[in-house]
C-alpha cells in the first residue's frame, strides 16, 4: 500500500507559554515542525505530507522552508486536533487511491528516528487492518479517579502512553473518525476512533525522544536526548 502523512500543526501551544506556537520554536537549528516533517520524509515510502495549519497562521511561510516543498500540501487546521486530522484526511482522499495508508504524526514530536519509522511502516504494511501506534509502556504507577473522588491503581504492566506516528488505512480512518465524532467519542488520537470501530491496533514500542513537546521542560529534555544520539 502507498503511504501519505498527515501532520496536525494547527495548535496554539498555550501550555508552552512561548511567543510563537510551539511547532515554530527552533530545535537543533530548524523549527520543530520542519524536524517532524523531514523525519517522515526520511522514508521514501512517504509520498506526500498534508500539514494542517491555521488559515491565518503567518509562521508557516515565514519561519519554515516547507511552503514550496514538492511533497508538502498545506490544508486548513480545525478547532480541535481531530478536526485538523480530518481536514488532512479529506484532502488526501481526494488525491490518493483507496489502497493508501495514512500516517498521522503530531507536529510537536520532532524526535522520530528513521529506525522507528521504518519499523512502524513495515508493521503497518504487514497488517494494515489492525494498524500500528508508536507507544511507550507506562513508567510511573498510574491512578484512576472517578467523580466521587475514589482512587484505584491501574496495573501499570498493562498501560501504555500512546504517541504518534499512528498508521491506518486512509479510508477506514476517515470513516472511523467521522463516526466516532458523531457518536460523541473524545477522539484524542486516531487509535481511539479505530478502537471505537472494534479495531485493536498494534502498539510498537517507541523511544522517549519521541515524547510530545508540550511544556518548556519537554523541549529541554527532547533536545538533550536528540543531542545525545550518535551521529
Ligand atoms: O495541544 P497538543 O500538544 O495536544 O496538540 C497535538 C498536536 O495537534 C500538535 O501538533 C498541534 O499543533 C495539533 N493541533 C491541531 N489543531 C488543533 C489543536 C492541536 O492541529 N486545533
From TrEMBL:
Catalytic activity: 2-C-methyl-D-erythritol 4-phosphate + CTP + H(+) = 4-CDP-2-C-methyl-D-erythritol + diphosphate
Main enzyme class: transferase
Any GO BP annotation: isopentenyl diphosphate biosynthetic process, methylerythritol 4-phosphate pathway
Entries under CDD domains matching the protein: CDP-ME_synthetase (cd02516)
One of the record's GO molecular function terms: 2-C-methyl-D-erythritol 4-phosphate cytidylyltransferase activity
Key words, A-Z: Isoprene biosynthesis, Nucleotidyltransferase, Transferase
Tree of life domain: Bacteria
Site positions (Positions MEP for the nucleophilic attack): 156, 212
Pathway: Isoprenoid biosynthesis; isopentenyl diphosphate biosynthesis via DXP pathway; isopentenyl diphosphate from 1-deoxy-D-xylulose 5-phosphate: step 2/6
Site (Transition state stabilizer): 15, 22
EC number: 2.7.7.60
Coiled coil stretches, renumbered: none
Cited SUPFAM superfamilies: Nucleotide-diphospho-sugar transferases
Family in the record: Belongs to the IspD/TarI cytidylyltransferase family. IspD subfamily.
Function: Catalyzes the formation of 4-diphosphocytidyl-2-C-methyl-D-erythritol from CTP and 2-C-methyl-D-erythritol 4-phosphate (MEP).
The name this protein goes by in its record: 2-C-methyl-D-erythritol 4-phosphate cytidylyltransferase
Source organism: Aliidiomarina taiwanensis
Organism lineage: Bacteria, Pseudomonadati, Pseudomonadota, Gammaproteobacteria, Alteromonadales
Name of the coding gene: ispD
Amino acid at each position: 500500500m502507498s503511504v501519505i502523512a498527515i501532520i496536525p500543526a494547527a495548535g496554539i501551544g498555550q501550555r508552552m507559554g512561548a511567543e510563537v506556537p510551539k511547532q515554530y520554536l527552533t530545535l537543533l537549528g530548524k523549527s520543530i515542525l520542519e524536524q517532524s516533517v523531514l523525519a517522515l520524509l526520511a522514508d521514501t515510502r512517504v509520498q506526500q505530507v498534508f500539514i494542517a495549519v491555521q488559515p491565518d497562521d503567518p509562521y508557516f511561510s515565514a519561519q519554515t522552508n516547507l511552503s514550496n516543498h514538492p511533497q508538502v500540501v498545506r490544508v486548513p487546521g480545525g478547532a480541535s486536533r481531530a478536526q485538523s486530522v480530518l481536514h488532512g484526511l479529506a484532502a488526501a482522499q481526494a488525491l490518493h487511491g483507496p489502497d493508501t495508508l495514512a500516517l498521522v504524526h503530531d507536529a510537536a514530536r520532532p524526535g522520530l528516528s528513521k529506525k522507528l519509522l521504518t519499523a512502524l511502516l513495515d508493521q503497518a504494511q504487514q497488517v494494515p487492518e489492525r494498524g500500528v501506534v508508536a507507544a511507550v509502556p507506562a513508567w510511573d504507577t498510574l491512578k484512576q479517579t472517578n467523580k466521587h473522588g475514589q482512587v484505584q491503581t491501574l496495573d501499570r504492566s498493562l498501560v501504555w502512553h500512546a504517541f504518534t506516528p499512528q498508521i491506518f488505512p486512509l479510508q477506514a480512518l476517515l470513516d472511523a473518525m467521522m463516526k466516532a465524532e458523531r457518536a460523541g467519542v473524545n477522539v484524542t488520537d486516531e487509535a481511539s476512533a479505530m478502537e471505537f470501530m472494534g479495531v485493536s491496533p498494534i502498539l510498537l514500542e517507541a523511544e522517549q525522544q519521541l515524547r510530545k513537546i508540550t511544556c518548556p521542560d519537554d523541549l529541554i529534555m527532547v533536545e538533550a536526548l536528540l543531542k545525545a544520539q550518535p551521529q
